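Structure (tokenized):
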């Protein structure tokens, strides 16, 4: 079940890989193309083509690397930021419409499960780009449950 890919995301203007790359450029600031390709798990030639398409659309721009004049960094443009903001707004509207179809019992169950899952998901996101020897320590089970009950 892929709610995001099937219903919440608008794929009319960007492919999934293009949207992921643009989001990463937005989050991580100007970035080397080789680094972007490695982090997105695609080949450098494929990333080069993807970035060239995004440049033609005015979503990203190549910038000089202040530390190495031979290297260009990829940065997001104001048009790229506007597109990401619009996509986020559309996802939120679609999610709101879906949530309105839930019964009160289903809404309560979703709310409770989200309160339990959210800290774990935050830890997974934190650990995703960390080397394995720098991962966040798990919360003890009793402490995690107690923290949720206090909130």
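Design, position by position:
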């Amino acid at each position: 079940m892929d709610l995001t890919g099937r219903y919440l995301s608008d794929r009319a203007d960007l492919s999934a890989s293009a949207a992921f790359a643009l989001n990463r450029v937005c989050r991580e600031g100007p970035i080397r193309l080789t680094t972007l390709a490695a982090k997105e798990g695609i080949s450098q030639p494929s990333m080069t083509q993807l970035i060239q398409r995004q440049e033609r659309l005015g979503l990203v721009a190549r910038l000089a690397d202040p530390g190495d004049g031979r290297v260009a960094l990829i940065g997001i443009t104001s048009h790229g930021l506007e597109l990401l903001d619009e996509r986020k707004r559309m996802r939120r509207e679609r999610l709101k419409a879906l949530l309105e179809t839930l019964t009160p019992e289903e809404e309560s169950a979703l709310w409770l499960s989200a309160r339990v899952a959210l800290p774990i998901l935050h830890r997974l996101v934190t650990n995703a780009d960390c080397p394995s020897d720098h991962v966040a320590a798990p919360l003890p089970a009793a402490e995690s449950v107690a923290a949720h009950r206090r909130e």
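Reviewer-requested clarification: The chain has a mean pLDDT of 85. The radius of gyration is 19 Å.
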